[in-house]
Amino acid sequence: MEDNRTSDIGLINEKIQKESAFVDLLTLEMNKVIVGQKHMVERLLIGLLAQGHILLEGVPGLAKTLSINTLAKAVHGSFSRIQFTPDLLPADVVGTMIYNIKENDFSIKKGPIFANFVLADEINRAPAKVQSALLEAMQEKQVTIGDETFILDKPFLVMATQNPVEQEGTYPLPEAQVDRFMLKTVIDYPKLDEEQLIIRANLKGAFEHVNPVVSLEQILRAQQAVREVYMDEKIEKYILDIIFATRYPEKYKLSDIKPLINFGASPRGSINLASAAKCYAFIKRRGYVIPEDVRAVVHDVLRHRIGITYEAEAENITSVDIINKIVNEVEVP
Questions:
Q1: Which of 241, 245, 216, 228 is nearest to 73 (CA)?
Q2: What is the per-residue burial (b if ≥16 Cβ within 10 Å, else e) of 128-141?
Q3: How far apart are the C-alpha atoms of 131 and 162, rounded to whole Å?
């Protein structure tokens, strides 16, 4: 029985190595334009492979727009950017019915949501009505305009950005809506030597041309292949232990963090953690998940799914500090 399982894992491993060959090619192509930001590029690939969506937080000027635009070019997909503003309407995102005087009838004008890669820039600048229109499209992968329903193109990846600096005149995303993002990635400034390269490239004005190196069909095949990545029962248990430790810390010898947690991760957290771990293994060209894969993605999957109390805020403790404590305490298989 053990031999059969080992040979099965061997076959899966071979298949994944073959299917994931494009990852290096795609990363190389993106690195022509994106300097550093390896973490962000990896997270974009995880979101794309897992059919999830990403919320990016970082100060302006850290290549958030450039990254998703470059990914769209390298994958030969369509790209659209929506700048969220306080006066934006849901119709500006999904589309609307337009009256045609000549034909005395209504025609449908599709909105920018109809693209493979959608950048929702500064999502917290728009009111809740617009945010929910976008989030519904993300969740259902379809849009209804008038009495017609349209299925969105595949692959479909939304990258929403929010600026943590200016909070005046913003509409913070409610917890229930933030939960719909598979990953929340916080990006930081580039390193000194990386920024030097950025300055040089900008002053020259000579940006490398990004070529389409991967087809949409390859991405869709990879999305299916990711599901086949082997995950042992022990890894599943490890993921569940991490999630349950956010809900019932006292059961995991973490009673000291109980007063700091307002609410723990939802079942979406466990689904997305398992899915992201499989994608991370795929990117590393492995057909099976190891505990390091889970630990590599746990912060991005859970940082927006743990509510902290006023007590935690008063002590300057963030959800990331809580995740660190949990990961260090929960037994690794």
A1: 216
A2: eebbebbbbbbeee
A3: 12
d(CA 180, CA 280): 20
Q: Specify the CATH architecture of the domain 230-329.
A: Orthogonal Bundle (1.10)
Residue with tokens 């599709």: 110
CB 291 within 8 A of CB 242: no
Q: Other C-beta atoms within 10 Å of 269: how many?
A: 23
| Whether residue 60 has a cis bond before it, omega within 30° of 0 | no
- Residue 75 CB partners (closer than 8 Å, separation 6+): 26, 48, 116, 117, 155, 212, 214, 215, 216, 219
Q: Ranked by mean pLDDT, which of 2-16, 134-148, 285-299 comes out on top?
A: 285-299
* Rounded CA separation 298/306 (Å): 12
Number of other residues whose CB lies within 10 A of the CB of residue 158:
25
Provide the residue ranges of all domains of the chain, joining segments of one domain with +.
34-203, 230-329
User: What CATH architecture does domain 34-203 belong to?
Assistant: 3-Layer(aba) Sandwich (3.40)
Identity of the amino acid at 92: D
Distances (CA, A) of 18 to 41, 188, 228, 299: 21, 33, 13, 29
Percent above pLDDT 90 for the chain? 21
Quick: pLDDT tens for 105-163: 887 888 899 999 999 888 888 888 888 888 888 888 888 887 888 888 888 989 888 87
Q: What is the pTM of this model?
A: 0.87
Which residues contact residue 154 at a Cβ distance below 8 angstroms, ignoring those fewer than 6 apart? 116, 141, 216, 220
With 0-12 CB in 10 A as exposed, 13-18 as middle and 19+ as buried, what is 105?
Answer: exposed
**Looking at residue 295, what is its pLDDT?**
93
Q: What size, in residues, is the chain? A: 333
Report the alpha-carbon distance of residue 173 to residue 184 in Å, rounded.
Answer: 12
Task: Work out the burial of residue 54: count CB atoms within 10 Å of its CB; fewer than 13 is exposed, 13-18 middle, 19 or more buried.
Answer: buried
